[in-house]
Write a structure and sequence with these properties.
The protein is mostly helical and 364 residues long. It is 68% helix and 1% strand. The protein has 2 domains: 151 residues, no CATH class; 115 residues, no CATH class. The protein has 19 helices and 2 strands. It has a two-stranded antiparallel ribbon with strand order 1-2.
Length: 364
């Protein structure tokens, strides 16, 4: 039988206790900066990557890479071509709108409108040339969507200065938004860990070796690792451990700082040894927003777990009044420590069950 009162007391606050929206505002700023940084890097080769006559022509990418059911600049160009707008002009115009909307999002001017425009044009741009996209595009798109629906303009924005946000800087909505982002990250890393574990490459170190030696990503000459295969073996196991343990460790107060440092170290390594530093930076920002500022976590210590069991089955650890009296009597007669107080196994068991299950459970 579920004790609904205890459930509301423990679980509901985990999702609804008011939280500061400052971290979500920082997420908005970080995501907008990442979008602008990506545009600045690809700007010299913009038409080569996304143009109709670029490295991969639209007639080819439209058949091989683009998801036909989703909108792209190809479809937009077909519409505007009727009024004499060239495909290259469509690409340049789309990026101008995208950059302006990201700038509005960055400074927090009409935040939901500008973020929505940025999200829509990023979708059009990414779907135009999927062959050139990788992880940073995916998580940038996710970040734009979250900034659109989250209360991300409550701080460090022109909307906040003008009083247009309409929400408090501390709200239940901010807590729910943060929890949703956390759960999303847990699903992402657990899914990644499962996918890696299904093959042999991550168990025998081959995946690490290939990533470090692949010509497209190779940053340093690490061929000497062939003489020490145990290093790549342990690195592969370490990645599996970090990703599999992420959903549990990030909600454990004592483990969370170490796991957060470990996942950041993984992404820093990806940046240093594979050159994917934009993807790594986006993932570090997302992890820091999700967990670095979170003061409320599920604590899986023994004391809380046993006490939390009362929430699901209040009768799982019944204590009779006689047991309590016996424990108190033994404690009163023994002048020494716990061993002297609990003079036999039954009294010791009664003492610990009472201490663990009878004490109040701190809020989640």
């Amino acid at each position: 039988m579920v004790n609904s009162a205890l459930w509301r007391e423990r679980v509901t606050p985990f999702f609804t206790d008011p939280a500061s929206a400052d971290v979500l505002s920082a997420y908005r700023i970080g995501t907008a900066c990442m979008g602008l940084l990506v545009v600045a890097i690809i700007a010299p080769s913009l038409l080569d990557i996304y143009g109709a006559e670029g490295f991969i022509q639209w007639v080819v990418s439209n058949e091989l890479f683009r998801i036909a059911s989703l909108p792209s600049l190809v479809q937009l160009s077909e519409l505007l071509e009727r009024i004499g707008v060239s495909p290259d002009a469509v690409v340049l115009g789309a990026f101008v709108v995208y950059v302006l909307s990201l700038t509005g999002m960055l400074v927090g001017w009409r935040t939901r409108l500008t973020t929505g425009i940025a999200w829509m044009f990023h979708f059009l741009i990414a779907n135009t040339s999927i062959a050139f996209g990788y992880g940073v595009e995916t998580f940038l798109h996710i970040g734009l969507f979250y900034c659109l629906v989250m209360p991300s303009a409550e701080r460090w924005s022109l909307d906040a200065r003008a009083g247009r946000t309409g929400h408090s800087r501390v709200s239940a909505g901010a807590r729910i938004a943060q929890r949703v982002l956390q759960i999303h990250l847990c699903i992402v890393y657990l899914n990644s860990g499962i996918a890696k574990a299904l093959g042999l490459e991550w168990w025998n170190g081959e995946a690490i070796w290939r990533a470090l030696m692949q010509p497209d990503f190779r940053q340093y000459d690490l061929s000497w690792l062939a003489s020490f295969p145990v290093i790549t073996l342990l690195m592969g196991w370490g990645v599996l451990l970090v990703e599999f343990g992420y959903p549990i460790a990030m909600y454990h107060r004592r483990l969370r700082p170490y796991w957060l440092a470990a996942i950041i170290a993984v992404h820093v390594s990806i940046a240093l040894f594979m050159g994917l530093w934009m993807f790594s930076l986006m993932m570090i920002i997302t992890n820091l927003v999700g967990f670095a500022s979170d003061s409320g976590t599920l604590d899986f210590t023994l004391r809380r777990n046993l006490a939390f069991a009362r929430l699901l089955k209040p009768s799982v650890m019944p204590l009779t009044q006689a047991w309590r009296d016996q424990k108190r009597t033994a404690a009163a007669r023994a002048p020494g420590g716990l061993v002297k107080k609990c003079v036999n196994a039954r009294q010791a068991a009664a003492f610990w069950v009472d201490e663990l299950a009878g004490s109040a459970v701190p809020s989640i």
